[in-house]
Predict the structure.
Amino acid sequence: DSGVTQTPKHLITATGQRVTLRCSPRSGDLSVYWYQQSLDQGLQFLIQYYNGEERAKGNILERFSAQQFPDLHSELNLSSLELGDSALYFCASSVGQGAIGDTQYFGPGTRLTVL
Amino acid sequence: DAKTTQPNSMESNEEEPVHLPCNHSTISGTDYIHWYRQLPSQGPEYVIHGLTSNVNNRMASLAIAEDRKSSTLILHRATLRDAAVYYCILRGTSGTYKYIFGTGTRLKVLA
Protein backbone atom coordinates (compact mmCIF):
# COMPACT_ATOMS: atom_id res chain seq x y z
CA ASP A 1 0.00 0.00 0.00
CA SER A 2 1.65 3.21 -1.24
CA GLY A 3 -0.55 5.52 0.83
CA VAL A 4 -2.00 7.16 -2.29
CA THR A 5 -5.72 6.63 -2.70
CA GLN A 6 -7.76 6.94 -5.85
CA THR A 7 -11.49 6.86 -6.36
CA PRO A 8 -13.41 5.36 -7.98
CA LYS A 9 -11.69 2.08 -8.78
CA HIS A 10 -13.78 1.52 -11.87
CA LEU A 11 -15.83 3.88 -13.98
CA ILE A 12 -18.01 3.00 -16.94
CA THR A 13 -19.55 5.79 -18.96
CA ALA A 14 -20.67 6.70 -22.45
CA THR A 15 -19.05 8.74 -25.19
CA GLY A 16 -19.57 12.46 -24.84
CA GLN A 17 -19.89 12.32 -21.08
CA ARG A 18 -17.73 13.97 -18.41
CA VAL A 19 -16.13 12.27 -15.41
CA THR A 20 -14.03 13.27 -12.44
CA LEU A 21 -11.27 11.13 -10.98
CA ARG A 22 -10.07 11.83 -7.48
CA CYS A 23 -6.68 11.35 -5.85
CA SER A 24 -5.52 11.78 -2.27
CA PRO A 25 -1.75 11.94 -1.92
CA ARG A 26 0.31 10.42 0.86
CA SER A 27 0.32 12.44 4.05
CA GLY A 28 2.92 15.19 3.74
CA ASP A 29 3.34 14.95 -0.01
CA LEU A 30 2.91 18.24 -1.86
CA SER A 31 3.11 17.05 -5.46
CA VAL A 32 0.48 15.11 -7.35
CA TYR A 33 1.06 13.61 -10.80
CA TRP A 34 -1.46 12.13 -13.21
CA TYR A 35 -0.63 9.38 -15.72
CA GLN A 36 -2.66 7.55 -18.34
CA GLN A 37 -1.95 3.93 -19.21
CA SER A 38 -3.52 2.47 -22.31
CA LEU A 39 -2.68 -0.71 -24.18
CA ASP A 40 -1.31 1.05 -27.25
CA GLN A 41 0.38 4.06 -25.61
CA GLY A 42 1.82 2.63 -22.42
CA LEU A 43 2.27 4.88 -19.38
CA GLN A 44 2.02 8.55 -20.33
CA PHE A 45 2.58 11.51 -18.02
CA LEU A 46 -0.32 13.97 -18.12
CA ILE A 47 0.23 16.72 -15.58
CA GLN A 48 1.82 17.59 -12.23
CA TYR A 49 0.64 19.90 -9.47
CA TYR A 50 2.80 21.11 -6.64
CA ASN A 51 1.17 22.71 -3.61
CA GLY A 52 -1.82 23.81 -5.64
CA GLU A 53 0.07 25.14 -8.65
CA GLU A 54 0.56 23.48 -12.02
CA ARG A 55 4.21 22.43 -12.20
CA ALA A 56 4.62 20.41 -15.39
CA LYS A 57 2.50 19.39 -18.32
CA GLY A 58 2.77 16.33 -20.49
CA ASN A 59 0.55 14.84 -23.17
CA ILE A 60 -2.69 16.08 -21.68
CA LEU A 61 -5.55 16.71 -24.09
CA GLU A 62 -7.44 19.99 -24.01
CA ARG A 63 -10.57 18.04 -23.06
CA PHE A 64 -8.81 17.04 -19.85
CA SER A 65 -8.12 19.32 -16.92
CA ALA A 66 -6.87 18.92 -13.40
CA GLN A 67 -6.58 20.86 -10.21
CA GLN A 68 -5.12 20.47 -6.75
CA PHE A 69 -7.10 21.74 -3.80
CA PRO A 70 -5.89 23.41 -0.58
CA ASP A 71 -6.08 20.08 1.25
CA LEU A 72 -3.74 18.76 -1.51
CA HIS A 73 -6.12 16.24 -2.99
CA SER A 74 -6.40 16.42 -6.75
CA GLU A 75 -9.07 15.85 -9.34
CA LEU A 76 -8.68 14.98 -13.00
CA ASN A 77 -11.63 16.01 -15.14
CA LEU A 78 -12.19 14.29 -18.45
CA SER A 79 -14.86 15.70 -20.75
CA SER A 80 -16.38 14.93 -24.16
CA LEU A 81 -15.18 11.40 -23.64
CA GLU A 82 -14.20 9.27 -26.61
CA LEU A 83 -13.71 5.52 -26.92
CA GLY A 84 -9.96 6.09 -27.03
CA ASP A 85 -9.99 7.62 -23.55
CA SER A 86 -10.61 4.18 -22.08
CA ALA A 87 -7.54 3.51 -19.98
CA LEU A 88 -6.10 3.15 -16.52
CA TYR A 89 -5.49 6.51 -14.87
CA PHE A 90 -2.85 6.61 -12.16
CA CYS A 91 -2.14 9.28 -9.65
CA ALA A 92 1.24 9.54 -7.95
CA SER A 93 2.52 11.80 -5.21
CA SER A 94 5.88 12.94 -3.93
CA VAL A 95 7.16 15.10 -1.12
CA GLY A 96 8.76 17.81 -3.19
CA GLN A 97 8.51 19.20 -6.68
CA GLY A 98 9.88 16.05 -8.26
CA ALA A 99 13.61 16.62 -8.24
CA ILE A 100 16.09 13.81 -8.16
CA GLY A 101 15.59 11.57 -5.16
CA ASP A 102 11.98 12.72 -4.84
CA THR A 103 10.38 9.31 -5.26
CA GLN A 104 6.93 9.14 -6.80
CA TYR A 105 4.45 6.84 -5.07
CA PHE A 106 1.65 5.57 -7.27
CA GLY A 107 -1.93 4.85 -6.37
CA PRO A 108 -3.87 1.75 -7.45
CA GLY A 109 -5.44 3.52 -10.42
CA THR A 110 -8.91 4.17 -11.80
CA ARG A 111 -10.02 2.04 -14.73
CA LEU A 112 -12.13 4.11 -17.10
CA THR A 113 -14.23 2.39 -19.73
CA VAL A 114 -15.97 4.53 -22.33
CA LEU A 115 -18.73 2.73 -24.22
CA ASP B 1 14.26 13.46 -23.36
CA ALA B 2 16.79 10.68 -23.65
CA LYS B 3 15.36 7.27 -24.50
CA THR B 4 15.91 3.83 -23.04
CA THR B 5 15.80 0.43 -24.71
CA GLN B 6 14.85 -2.72 -22.84
CA PRO B 7 14.08 -6.29 -23.92
CA ASN B 8 10.35 -6.91 -24.17
CA SER B 9 10.41 -9.94 -21.91
CA MET B 10 12.66 -12.15 -19.82
CA GLU B 11 12.24 -15.35 -17.84
CA SER B 12 13.92 -16.47 -14.68
CA ASN B 13 13.72 -19.41 -12.34
CA GLU B 14 12.63 -18.81 -8.79
CA GLU B 15 15.43 -18.14 -6.30
CA GLU B 16 17.94 -17.42 -9.06
CA PRO B 17 19.46 -14.00 -9.76
CA VAL B 18 17.97 -11.90 -12.53
CA HIS B 19 19.82 -9.30 -14.58
CA LEU B 20 17.55 -6.84 -16.37
CA PRO B 21 19.45 -4.76 -18.94
CA CYS B 22 18.74 -1.22 -20.13
CA ASN B 23 20.48 0.68 -22.91
CA HIS B 24 20.55 4.47 -22.83
CA SER B 25 23.21 5.51 -25.30
CA THR B 26 21.99 9.14 -25.50
CA ILE B 27 22.14 9.71 -21.75
CA SER B 28 23.43 13.11 -20.71
CA GLY B 29 25.82 13.77 -17.89
CA THR B 30 23.08 14.93 -15.54
CA ASP B 31 20.51 12.22 -16.24
CA TYR B 32 19.73 9.90 -13.37
CA ILE B 33 18.73 6.30 -14.06
CA HIS B 34 15.54 5.24 -12.30
CA TRP B 35 13.89 1.84 -12.17
CA TYR B 36 10.24 1.26 -11.40
CA ARG B 37 8.24 -1.93 -11.60
CA GLN B 38 4.55 -2.55 -12.10
CA LEU B 39 3.04 -5.66 -10.62
CA PRO B 40 -0.14 -7.01 -12.22
CA SER B 41 -3.16 -4.81 -11.56
CA GLN B 42 -1.14 -2.29 -9.55
CA GLY B 43 0.46 1.10 -10.03
CA PRO B 44 4.20 1.42 -10.66
CA GLU B 45 6.46 1.00 -7.67
CA TYR B 46 9.86 2.62 -7.13
CA VAL B 47 12.76 0.18 -7.14
CA ILE B 48 16.06 2.09 -7.23
CA HIS B 49 17.91 4.95 -8.85
CA GLY B 50 21.51 6.03 -9.44
CA LEU B 51 23.79 8.41 -11.33
CA THR B 52 27.25 6.91 -11.77
CA SER B 53 28.10 4.52 -8.94
CA ASN B 54 26.49 1.17 -8.38
CA VAL B 55 23.64 1.31 -5.86
CA ASN B 56 22.13 -1.24 -3.52
CA ASN B 57 18.93 -1.25 -1.52
CA ARG B 58 16.71 -3.86 0.08
CA MET B 59 14.92 -4.57 -3.18
CA ALA B 60 17.69 -4.69 -5.77
CA SER B 61 21.08 -3.54 -7.01
CA LEU B 62 21.77 -1.20 -9.88
CA ALA B 63 24.96 -1.65 -11.86
CA ILE B 64 25.86 1.30 -14.11
CA ALA B 65 28.38 0.96 -16.91
CA GLU B 66 31.44 3.16 -16.74
CA ASP B 67 30.38 5.11 -19.84
CA ARG B 68 26.81 5.24 -18.44
CA LYS B 69 25.35 4.10 -21.75
CA SER B 70 23.82 1.06 -20.15
CA SER B 71 22.74 -0.21 -16.78
CA THR B 72 21.52 -3.44 -15.24
CA LEU B 73 18.96 -3.99 -12.53
CA ILE B 74 19.86 -7.03 -10.45
CA LEU B 75 17.35 -8.97 -8.40
CA HIS B 76 19.51 -11.23 -6.27
CA ARG B 77 16.97 -14.00 -5.72
CA ALA B 78 13.85 -13.81 -7.83
CA THR B 79 10.58 -14.79 -6.21
CA LEU B 80 7.18 -15.29 -7.78
CA ARG B 81 6.20 -11.90 -6.37
CA ASP B 82 8.87 -10.26 -8.54
CA ALA B 83 6.93 -11.08 -11.71
CA ALA B 84 6.20 -7.62 -13.10
CA VAL B 85 6.99 -5.13 -15.85
CA TYR B 86 10.26 -3.35 -15.07
CA TYR B 87 10.77 0.16 -16.41
CA CYS B 88 14.12 1.89 -16.84
CA ILE B 89 13.69 5.68 -16.91
CA LEU B 90 16.08 8.58 -17.38
CA ARG B 91 15.42 11.79 -15.53
CA GLY B 92 17.28 15.05 -15.85
CA THR B 93 18.04 17.48 -13.08
CA SER B 94 16.57 20.55 -14.74
CA GLY B 95 13.35 21.48 -16.43
CA THR B 96 10.28 19.39 -15.87
CA TYR B 97 10.51 16.38 -13.65
CA LYS B 98 8.19 14.08 -15.54
CA TYR B 99 9.00 10.43 -15.95
CA ILE B 100 9.10 9.11 -19.51
CA PHE B 101 8.15 5.45 -19.28
CA GLY B 102 9.24 3.14 -22.09
CA THR B 103 7.69 -0.22 -22.86
CA GLY B 104 9.61 -1.97 -20.08
CA THR B 105 10.63 -5.59 -19.64
CA ARG B 106 8.02 -8.13 -18.60
CA LEU B 107 9.70 -10.52 -16.17
CA LYS B 108 8.26 -13.97 -15.79
CA VAL B 109 9.42 -16.01 -12.80
CA LEU B 110 9.12 -19.75 -13.09
CA ALA B 111 8.49 -21.89 -10.00
In short: Chain B touches chain A at residues 32, 38, 42-46, 49, 87, 91, 93, 96-104 (CB under 8 Å). Strands of chain B lie at 9-13, 18-23, 32-38, 45-50, 55-56, 61-64, 70-75, 84-91, 105-110. DSSP finds no helices and nine strands in chain B.
